[in-house]
Amino acid sequence: MKLSHRITHLTPSGSDGWEVFYKARRMKAEGQPVTELTIGEHDIRTAAPILDAMHAAAKSGHTGYAMVPGTDALRDAVADRIAARTAVPTTRDNILITPGGQAALFAAHHAVLDQGDRALYIDPYYATYPGTIRGVGGDPVAVPARADTGFQPKAADIAANAEGAKSLLINTPNNPTGAVYARDTLDGIAQVCIDHDITLISDEVYDTQVWDGTHISPRALPGMADRTLVVGSMSKSHAMTGSRVGWVCGPAEAISHMINLATHTTYGVPGYIQDAALFALNQGPVLEDEVAAPFRRRRAVTEALLSGQNTVKASPTQGAMYAMLDIRSTGMTGNDFANALLDAHLIATMPGESFGQAGAGHVRVAMTIDDDSYATAMRTLIDFAAMQAT
Ligand code: PLP
Q1: How far apart are CA 134 and CA 37, in angstroms?
Q2: Who is most buried in 94, 173, 225, 302, counting CB within 10 A?
Q3: Which residues surround ligand 1 with Cβ inside 6 Å?
């Protein structure tokens, strides 16, 4: 079959830093007891009452085509949650329900990019970002956020790349770095967007996982509500990764076009999934805190273990379910370190390089296994790093 350039070039060929991950999966399949600190997936499952709500909705007949933009009730609930958290007036007309945050990222870029348009994103980055931009015909351009600034992107670096750019994609709390963008970082980003007439796409799927500082949605900053598309999701906040339910929030006109896109792509999200999401949102922050609690505990374990030594340094670990560990004092690349740790101790981490060049010399640890196993694995990693450094 003759395939399109667009699909065959979605992801670059050759080494992309994910080899360690696939190697770990192979070793596991062969029966080796690999400890996986790789993927951003909770070690708990979706709470039983949410599944009960899903079951009840399906049994009551909510199994036909659902409203393409999302049910009124869920759009209202998402709008109310956003308005309550940001004080920006938000109604259902500002909300499109999507199959997860990933589909929201795609819709948002589709809404603002034409073929060949320059689209900025911050490096280190969540793995799908450049491919999502390419998928809508955009030209992805990485802007580095540096370890020595706690991975807070600098407005000057963005401005230096802003000429002709149509969009800027940011993510706070950040995967993979754990950074939560400070007010002055976001003010700087907002100013560049205003100065260069750039649409900001703000990925806030980790907005309930903040351990230090405060999550600020840039849509709430002066002059930004009309030029920001916010991506949200139930995946991380409610341990509903497999349910595939998220949203885009933005100006009503942009949302109306994205609804048209949904009509011609996903045709919406199953009604019983939306009802379960509505039930979950209606539980309020109590459930969100419960889902976030294991990561808060393990983040404290990470900080405590790192404080007793000098070899491994963490970037801020202010939010999200990851710790980005700086292992440059070992003299190894993130890739070499992750490979060697896997071979020596059967502990799988993600090389920082798999999240972009700015992640070099780091490994990302997902805090997604039980507390005791996590502490043991972290101790082993730290001891291993100390051995390499000597
Ligand atoms: N954005 C970030 C930063 C992520 O880490 C993820 C998933 O890991 C997503 C978006 C997509 O999440 P989902 O499509 O499950 O909502």
Answers
A1: 29
A2: 173
A3: 40, 100-102, 126, 171, 175, 203, 205, 233, 235, 241, 246
For the CA of 171, the closest atom of ligand 1 is 3
Determine the atom of ligand 1 nearest the C-alpha atom of 234: 16
Which residues are CB-contacts of 305 (< 8 A; sequence separation ≥ 6)?
375, 378, 379, 382
CA distance linking residue 273 with residue 269, whole number of Å: 7
Mean residue pLDDT across the chain: 96
Structural domain spans, the chain: 5-45+286-383, 64-283
* CATH code for residues 64-283: 3.40.640.10
pLDDT value of position 265: 97
Q: Residues 246-289: pLDDT tens digits?
A: 999 999 999 999 999 999 999 999 999 999 999 999 999 999 99
If you measure from the C-alpha of residue 199 to the centroid of ligand 1, how many angstroms do you get, rounded to a whole number?
Answer: 20
Nearest to 125 by CA among 365, 352, 368, 339: 352
Query: Considering the entire predicted model, what is its pTM?
Result: 0.97
- Best probe residue, ligand 1, of 18, 123, 126, 129 (max atoms within 8 Å of C-beta): 126
Tell the CATH topology of 5-45+286-383.
Aspartate Aminotransferase, domain 1 (3.90.1150)
Protein residue closest via CA to atom 8 of ligand 1: 40
